[in-house]
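Suppose you are handed only these lines of text.
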Amino acid sequence: MQLNGTTKVLGIFGDPIAHSLSPRMQNAAIEAADINAVFVPFHVRKVELEAAVAAIRSLGLIGVNVTVPHKEAVMPFLDEIDNEAKLIGAVNTIVHLDGRLIGHNTDGRGFLDSLQSDLSFQPAGKNVLLLGAGGAARAAIVALAQATAARITISNRTFGKAEELRAEFSGLFPDTEFVAEPFEVERLQPHLASADLLVNTTVVGLHGENFSLPLIESLSTSAFFYDMVYAPGLTPLQQAASDRGLAFADGRGMLVGQGGIAFQLWFGVSPASDIMRSVIAK
Ligand code: ATR
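From them, the structure of the protein bound to 2'-monophosphoadenosine-5'-diphosphate can be written out as follows.
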């Protein structure tokens, strides 16, 4: 990579940021596309977020990714929010166009891309059981409902949040049945047995921990498991899926998917997703 007077700058805002795989992944794609740009990690604290967004304009950055914990907080500082990001209620990609900052959310489509490329799974007409009710769950719900899943069951440790999502999204997507369930064995059993896809949108497993309930064991052997967590080895849930011979994938494919769509928004061309994938492989 040769930096010079015309090198374009973009990057990612987050706190923490040092662990992010996006700089490695985006710079590999930038290099492969022979674009004169560099993607930089920016450690942005909450109190500096508004100033950091203003710097996109003042420094002429062509755009940024936004990650935890700023995806929602960044929204009031932007000039425009696209429909997908409005539905999800969060922005993970900002495009700087002639002084205007436009917020997008590519997480949901990245998730769908990964379901397709990693598992050859198409959500249309399928029953999905989703664990968690935070921002990652919202992106997955919007994507699955847009892809016309038949039923989305949301289960969360704090039941009220699952119920809030059910109420909100059942009004927006009448073609999908939404159910909220407490995170309890008896309540989840029928949904596990009938699920075509189980999705873990929580961080459980990141540090080797597991849910207190048996989950993988109750799935049908033809069910798929998508775990948004990615860790150096297999998490306990991923190991259980592997032991049962289920088709499963971790969140690396979603990272590549969301990054690829962001790349397209910034540069107007598709990146080499195989290269993005290979530089972040285990
Ligand atoms: P994100 O934006 O990444 O989804 P979040 O908004 O903080 O993060 O949401 C985290 C989700 O993981 C929540 O659904 C949370 O459950 P609660 O709503 O009950 O907090 C879930 N979660 C986190 N740690 C968990 C654990 N140890 N067991 C079960 N669920 C957990």
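What can we learn from it? The CA atoms of residues 4 and 156 lie 50 Å apart. The chain has a mean pLDDT of 97.
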